[in-house]
Amino acid sequence: MAKNLIYNKVALTPNKTVMYFDKIYDYYDFIEEKEKELLNSVGNANAKRVYEGNATSNYINSNIRKRSWFGTTDPSMVTKKLDEYLFSDELNRFLTSFRNDTSTFDKVDLDQKKKILFTSREIGIFSFDLASLGLVRVYEYFSYQLDRIVDSYNVRSYKNASGDLIFYHIEVVGIPRHELERRGKKYYSELLDAFIDEDKIEVVDDGTKIVHYHIGKEGIKKHDVERRQVIDKNGKKKFASTFKKSFIYIEKVDTKLPRIDLIINSAYSSDVNATTQMIWGSMAAITIAEKLAKSNVNFRVFVSYGKELNNNKKLFRYIKVKDTNEPLNINGLAVMASDPREYRLSQFKGTIVAAVDAGMGDNLLGGIARPIRDSNEVKQAFIDYLKSQKDYDTNDAQVLTNSKIVFSPSLDRASAVQEYRNVITQISRIN
User: Chain-centre distance of CA 119, in angstroms?
Assistant: First the structure.
């Protein structure tokens, strides 16, 4: 039985179509069902020809020897369900170092913009009316394996065959106890490529010299966890407000930061190396998303695949990977935005079947399509779609435009750090 597909398709102009998917699994269902329709259809000769050259086992076998293409030389790693980011260990190490790279800039960024100060000052009179705006349930995650509440940043979710949402703790790679190198007044870990906080340092004095060690951290295997609504000390279910400015202070009236949409432009060209370049594609976005999540900012995250076909036809797909009030799924975001297996198989299929669904099958190129790299073009198509659906929380055209932020593809550490700084500056100008 065919699955009930849930997505929006809007032709903004005769040559420009937007497809919008509210959930990652809605998008995968779309690819699965539309792939069957294409292969069983009469006609669609051009689309079938492009599919044969870019989405079949022959295509995989002809490219699998090049690790720079899929990021692996094991075909089973390409065709299996991608529950975990291919370079998860590298991602965790890079993010630890990346956060350190951005820390200096953080000291002079948004916290100095009083109008959009992320952390509320608990002064003046508390307003229950303000706090009740955007009221949401507060959840925590309990691990029976660890017998404790676990950090939500390590929790991911997926939809099982019955349609139930299952939550699980990702695998956390342990850190062995190891010696640190002193650099000035700080201690550096060559293993982690990062400076280490004092609370993670063990000092050993053997009488002849003093040695500083990272205390290490025990690893955690992937396992299911239970989502629970937090119960307060009075035994009542806990709720929270997404409206941070809940204190009325006569000196200044703070305004609510509008909903921010982070859009990761994940359309790569064929010359991008899977193992040395594509991994950076999600780095700045994940770091920004973590910052916003910890600051209780109302935001969503989308992955975008913008493609230009023959005859000036343009096709944009936007897949929501985080909704407001949902936990940040770093693994899912990284897979959708910068996993070469995902992009060079699932997204190749996705582009082909989406083009057919949009009536652009005859406009597919031999290499499928050209990536649209212009951030302004990706942004404008997204805003035009939102306006067509009346999906916005402000009538101020400037605020609407400024609150939609597109991440350009970053292919190395330096460009990822610069992209982070650029986005921080953009957010600071939202008013």
Answer: 23
Q: Which residue has the higher pLDDT, 290 or 312?
A: 312
Query: How far is C-alpha 220 from the geometric centre of its chain's CA atoms?
Result: 23
Query: Token pair for residue 185?
Result: 């007044």
Classify each residue of 107-128 as buried b or exposed e, where b means 16 or more C-beta atoms within 10 Å of its C-beta. eebbeeeeebbbeeeeeeeeee
Pairing of strands 260-265, 404-407: parallel
Count the Cβ atoms, other than its own, within 10 Å of residue 347.
26
Query: Which pTM was predicted?
Result: 0.68
C-alpha 347/C-alpha 338 separation (Å) is: 11
Rounded CA-CA distance 216/223 in Å is 22
Nearest to 349 by CA among 1, 34, 20: 34
Amino acid at 173: V
Assess contact for 341 and 295: CB atoms under 8 A.
no
Nearest alpha-carbon partner for 339 in 86, 31, 100: 86
| Residue 354 in tokens | 């989406």
- 388 contacts: CB under 8 Å, gap ≥ 6: 10, 12
Question: What digits encode the pLDDT tens for the residues 162-195?
Answer: 888 899 988 887 889 999 998 888 888 888 777 8
Residue 307: count of CB within 10 angstroms of its CB? 23
Helix (H) or strand (E) holding 213: strand 210-214
